[in-house]
Amino acid sequence: MNKRLTEEDKKKIYDVFADSYISLVGQGLIGRYERKIIAQYILKGVRGSETIHDIIKAAENLAKRYPQFHTALAHIKGGISDIREEQVISRLKDYITHSKHSNSS
Amino acid sequence: MTDLLGGEQAHRAVEHVTAATVGREARSRQADVAQLQDIRSRLGSEDLFAQMAEEKMDEKQPNFDAIDRAVLQMGDPIRQADIQRQTQLLHEIVDRKAPGTYAAGVMPDAHVKYLGKVIATSPGMVAAIAKEFGAPLATVRSVLERGAYPGGGPLASIIQRYLSDENFVLALRKNVAEHVIVSDDLATLTEQIDSTQNKIASKQRSIDTERSIYTNAAGTGSYDRIETMKRARPADFNTLKTNVDDFNRLQGSFKTAGLQAVGLDRNGLTNDAEAVQFQGDIDHQINQLSGGLMVDHTTPLPPIPPPPGVDPLGPNRQTIAHLVQGWTNARRVRNLLAVANFDRDSKDLSLYNEYQATKRASLDTQQDEVNGLRVDLVKLQTQHGDLVNGVAQKVDRVLSKTFKDYYNTALLAEADKIAQAEAQQKAEDKKKAEDEKTLRETDAKDLLDRFLHMSFLKYKNGKAVGWDDRALKDFVKKQMLSRSPQELMRDMLRRINQQRFHMPLKYTAELRKVFAEMGVGTGVPPLTLNQVLDKIDRTKYEEWAADKIPDILGYAWGRGFYFDRLRLKSGQIEFLKRAYSPDFFAKALAAKGMYSEEAAKMLGEGYLTGGAISQEKIKQLLGGDWVNGSKKLMKTMAVAGAIGAGTFALAGGLGHPMVGGILPTLKEGAVHVFGGIPQSGALAGTRIPGTLPSLGLAGLNTVSAVSRTGENVIGAVAKGVSDTASKVFPP
Lengths: 105, 731
Prior knowledge:
Number of strands of chain B: 6
Shape of chain A: elongated
Number of helices of chain A: 4
Shape of chain B: rod-shaped
Structural class of chain A: mainly alpha
Helix content of chain B: 55-70%
Distance between the termini of chain A: 28 Å
Largest sheet of chain A: none
Mean pLDDT of chain B: 74
Radius of gyration of chain B: 66 Å
Oligomer: heterodimer
Number of helices of chain B: 28
Structural class of chain B: mainly alpha
Mean pLDDT of chain A: 78
């Protein structure tokens, strides 16, 4: 469950955050000053996260600090869940592939 | 960017305040979003955040604590109160970190009124707001200055927009941080001032205390009293001086060897009791030293017996004599001490002398030092005042400066951005509208080209079964004479739309698609055909009319409805003259042949059955050599068009006894006809039968056209018509 995030995973996570970030800018809910701080926070949060769990925790902290992100949190969590599902499926595939190899050998 | 707040540039401010107050923030945000999405699409989400994280922002924060401390040191209490209030408001405004922290409705009214006053000093902004509300300039300025507007009103809401604008708040925060700076020198100066003030106070107190012994404001100092005496009672002053001199001299007389010998020497006698005691001691000592020969100083010294005998006082005579002298001096001292106020006056005189001799100079020197410190203090206080006032001035101006900055940078940049976005949008809209217009017009022309003639056919079960003669007749005899070319073209497009339901299915579907492409049924609410047709330029209709109406006349001609043979009333002629150009009828003539040919094609291909019936009829009428007959006929079809002052005629040679009555059309235009010259005297005003067979019959007896203009046309047209006829009516 706590598989380490790959670069590809993080790329997708950044996309999820960027969706919410741009949406909030469009709604006028985060100003120029906050844009910088929140961007720094997201970068720090994602770069410092090793698992999905860390990411969710970072997103929740962000929402605590910037209430504007409360509404976006659901979207972020939803997006992250999708990534987690992909991770699970990918691991399952690995497992199956590995099993096949093991069986054939 | 230039400062737009000057009056001479008020007009530009008007535009921009409008930009900032008519709800274009959303567009501005959209521009931001577009920018972010652009970065994201180019660099990816992570780099978007990286770029935003490195966005250059002003990190410097205002130091309101230092400002408050500086303001507290202001000298003028009224100004201090004003600056304190402003500082408080500035602090509250810049403490808002994000737009939306304050909802517009709960924004403190004081903030609005504070900025309102600043705006009142900007001629451009006042002009802009005046423009916005359609109010006189002076009224707007006065209202802003006095804050005489309701907190939730429209004027307040404009100001609230600025106060809610993050750019403004950021600019204010930046300006307070960068410009309202309290120098560290202020603290140093404050300390120096305190120290100097303390030093001055201490030294001055010391000087004043010391000097007051000699001289003071009450005039009770020793110097003061002696001076007063000297001026007012010089005799007393002189006596005092003498007495004091005596007294001082006597004080030195008690240290003689004689007194010393008996241990009664003194440094002086300063009071009466001491003197009395001294005198008592001397008397006692005299008694002792004289062996009783002398009771006291009052006893005369006993003489020494002659020739020198033994002195009864022995060696003590000299000492006793000194004692007697001492006693006498003591008495003199007592006498001086007994003089009224001698003790005080003598001390005063002593201090007077001392003050004059040294003390005054010494105290003056000290005073000079204190005065020097006072000069230093003034310098320090001036520096301090400059610093404090500098802070106050910055507080006083920072909002105004910020507003200008905000206006000149943020707001105008924003306005530029909005303007660019608007221009781009406008260009896109225009292009889209142009594309739509072009498409609409192309489609309409295409419809006319491809379906106009089909719209004049009759259908049964999706197959053409003949011409819609009623429509053609109606067109020639009614519509042509009452509707303008533009209206006719609209009518034709409407007709195509109506007729599509009768056409073969594939056309029905295609036409629906084309009309939809032109915009019919699109939008909310859905556009009607008439609304779509309204969007087509009048000139297009005219252009198409010039092309298509002759076509329709051609169809009609093919069906025996001869527009060129109508008898027209003067009003109808007038209408035609106004509605159509001369060229139009030339084209109409030219079109005859073309559409007859087309009609022939249709007949040949079995589309139509009506033509076949006509063919039979014509054959019947013309007999075997009907080709030649029809050629003759076609000559008579020549239409002469002449549109001139007072006359109008499309004249074709036509004179048939049955139709009779064709007037010479060039005669002063009393009656205008479409028709020809009668071969024999005919009755004017008789209507020409309008069918092809009857025309063919009539043609046998026609003569050539009368109009020379018409003749020119005839030559060209007749051949075409003749050729066409051979196709329409093959042998």
